[in-house]
Amino acid sequence: LAKTTQPISMDSYEGQEVNITCSHNNIATNDYITWYQQFPSQGPRFIIQGYKTKVTNEVASLFIPADRKSSTLSLPRVSLSDTAVYYCLVSSLLVQGAQKLVFGQGTRLTINP
Amino acid sequence: EAQVTQNPRYLITVTGKKLTVTCSQNMNHEYMSWYRQDPGLGLRQIYYSMNVEVTDKGDVPEGYKVSRKEKRNFPLILESPSPNQTSLYFCASSLYQGSTNEKLFFGSGTQLSVL
Question: Per-residue pLDDT tens for A10-21?
Answer without folding.
Answer: 999 999 999 999
